[in-house]
Amino acid sequence: MTHFTRRGFIGFSALGVVALAAKPSVAAPKAELWDRWTRHDTASLVRVDHSAWEQFLKTYLKDNPSGLNRVDYAGVSAADQKALDGYIALLSGTSISTLNGAEQQAYWINFYNALTIQVVLQHMPVKSVLDINISPGLFSSGPWGKKLVTVEGEELSLDDMEHRILRPIWKDPRIHYGVNCASVGCPDLIMNPYDPATLDAALTANAIAYVNSPRGVRIEGGKVIASKIYDWFIEDFGGNEAGVLAHLRQYAEGDLKVALEKATKISDYEYDWSLNAA
Fold first, then answer.
1. How far is 61 from 53, CA to CA, in rounded Å?
2. Which one of 126, 130, 136, 188 is least enclosed by Cβ atoms within 10 Å?
3. How many domains are there within the chain?
4. Is 138 inside a domain boundary?
């Protein structure tokens, strides 16, 4: 069986990386709740220490003039890679069930993003995260399906974090603006770790930034061209194109918002799987 994750249904060119422009016949994974991760302590004041991740981001995440934050993978020192490994180990050893819900949500998004960076660093040099072909299954590609860490005795993959924990527990389409798959087409990594106190504002800011970038949605010849994310995860954006358009209008600004108010369909979807390397 073909394995579909955040990458959805993927085509390959001579260069090895191309997103399908047409709508795929098969969608990305549905959000299927892994119930054991719903356990939490509402009264808990325990905070997870994300300072190592913050230091990594401030050192290696580069604000690009084109509007895309890129990671200086090639510049990561052995010491800083070890520090990142230590941060992953810290998260893996966290008793997640003892945290409150807001702390958990920030924990999982930060964990997903840091783990993705770790995987890329472990397999450099690569031109795309799709080149990290470690997921199980004959037709699988990318790193998303491989069990990479153990938390509270459970082996977890990136797929588990996104599709069995984050999406089904919080049911918030803005999750897609928080998790980062190390690709140009993805919403940006941001310069700071996600914090429970500011998470809602950060996800909204991410949504505004992505929707108003050409990677999110643009108008060409009066036609709406949108990110493949809105097609792969259409169930999270209202379940149909009308729902996607309503979502886009919510965050669009200026001329884009005006154009989307008149739009009745999305003409095409695109995605760039090139590595988000500086």
1. 11
2. 136
3. 1
4. yes
